[in-house]
Amino acid sequence: MVYYCDSNFEPDCSIGYLAKRIHQLGLGALEPIFAEEGVTGPQWSALVAIHFGRGRTSAALAREMSHDKGAMTRLIDTIEQKGWIERTRDTNDRRIINLALTPEGQAVAMRTRDRVIAAWNAWLADWDHDEIERTVATLQKLRDQMLNVVDQTQSVDRGD
To answer: What is the largest distance, in Å, between two alpha-carbon atoms of the chain?
Structure first.
């Protein structure tokens, strides 16, 4: 099925534009929360990714956050210096450095999470439960489809 064409592809109908704009608006609104907690948006995203097991290593965290490895190393250095994470060598493969939240990092992440939840609940206050669930399910479906296409493209590029 083809949906987009030159006659209907404009910002207010572009999923990419709308997702980007929502992301920008959200970050702008959440910035004061992050500042009050002494954390930046990327730092909080890293803490939450580690908390949910989506960034157990620097490489996994870089993939999760779409950061290059150099930027990720600097981000990890910063949050480690703040005492929010610790690095430990993997017991099975000493080449791997695992990331884990410290108790202070867990506290910062969860305090900030609670305030982010409150912000999202305020933004979604006029939505009914079914609308929210359908939107989340649709976004998850789109994400999964995009991941499948990327995986297939990378597989072809590697000659698999």
So the answer is: 57
Q: Are 44 and 112 in contact (CB under 8 A)?
A: yes
- Is residue 63 within 8 Å of 27, Cβ to Cβ? no
Distance, in Å, from the CA atom of 140 to the CA atom of 25, rounded to the nearest integer, reads: 20
- Structure tokens that stand for 144 in this block: 């999964």
pLDDT tens readout for residues 65-119? 999 988 999 999 999 999 999 999 999 998 999 999 999 999 999 999 999 999 9
C-alpha–C-alpha distance, residues 150 and 39, integer Å: 32
CA angle, residues 63, 46, 18, in degrees to nearest 5: 70
Q: What angle do CA 96, 150, 10 make, to 5 degrees?
A: 130
